[in-house]
Design goal:
The complex is a heterodimer of chains A (195) and B (129). In chain A, 39% of the residues lie in helices and 28% in strands. By secondary structure, chain A is an alpha/beta fold. Chain B is built from 4 helices and 1 strand; from the N terminus they run ααβαα.
Amino acid sequence: MKKGLLIFLPLTALFLFSNCAHKVTRIDPSEQIDLSGRWNNTDSRLVAEDMTKTILGANWLTNYMAAKNGQRPTVIVGLVTNKSHEHIEAETFIKDVENSFVTSQRVRLVQGGKKREELRAEKADQQTNASASTMKKFGLEQGADFILQGSINSIVDSQKRKKVVYYQVNLELTNIETNEVVWIGEKKIAKYVKN
Amino acid sequence: MTLAVILFAGAAMAQTTLAPDQNPDFAISRAKYMKTADSINTWQGTTAQETYKAIDYLADKAEARANRRAFRQQLRLERARYGYSSYDWYNSLNYGNGWGNYNNYYSPYRYNRRSNFSWNLGLGWWWRW
């Protein structure tokens, strides 16, 4: 009996510890792994890919450049409203769109919100602390021509353990002076979740 | 005469500063939004979370279970603190226990759900234990 216990207990402990071992592995961010069915990095990536592709290829850009003698438009990112049933941070795909503006060099991007406040605060600090030759002046900021705003909506249809979740992400580009909407990007994602 | 000339010159200058087809009353709106611009613009580049609670059977079930667990834990704490008989802790905790006061939406003992039958069999306080 004792002998049996002596063999059995270490084996059980080994089994339990091997199961509880914490394990982390790096994966490719573009790999699709769906665990819960909720909004995840794959959804964000799909939205980003679709939006970046369409926003730079749309007519608003060529129209603006034709009207302004080839000048590039300046865009500021506004508010994105998440009206879905989940907490979704739009920055994950908005940053990809911003990145496409900067890397393509076809659209100028200006800072807005709290980051702009920080920039102005730094500029204010320079007025009294920086040397006269390096001090940056107020009133020379690049004014935005367009504002990029957006919304995220969802519809959930569930019955017992089955669920269909539909997400609709919209981004809109609006002319700041005229309020004219010049581009609307749309990405629809539908998921069937069976628990 | 001089005043008239000054007024005319002022009006003419104001007119020249207007862009073609610009609304001459634009200054009213500008004054209004100059006051609120700073507070509104801090939201730029952020996501406003205006989420709603979807009807989801499993999520609701999990939430009810979590509430029941939290209630039981609170109950144990209260019992440890005040004992079983000296304090009417049950009634003081009659909230958020998953089934609440046994008459909320998720409770199978909900009175008058579809019929007039009551699961309260008259066991009084004992039933609640």
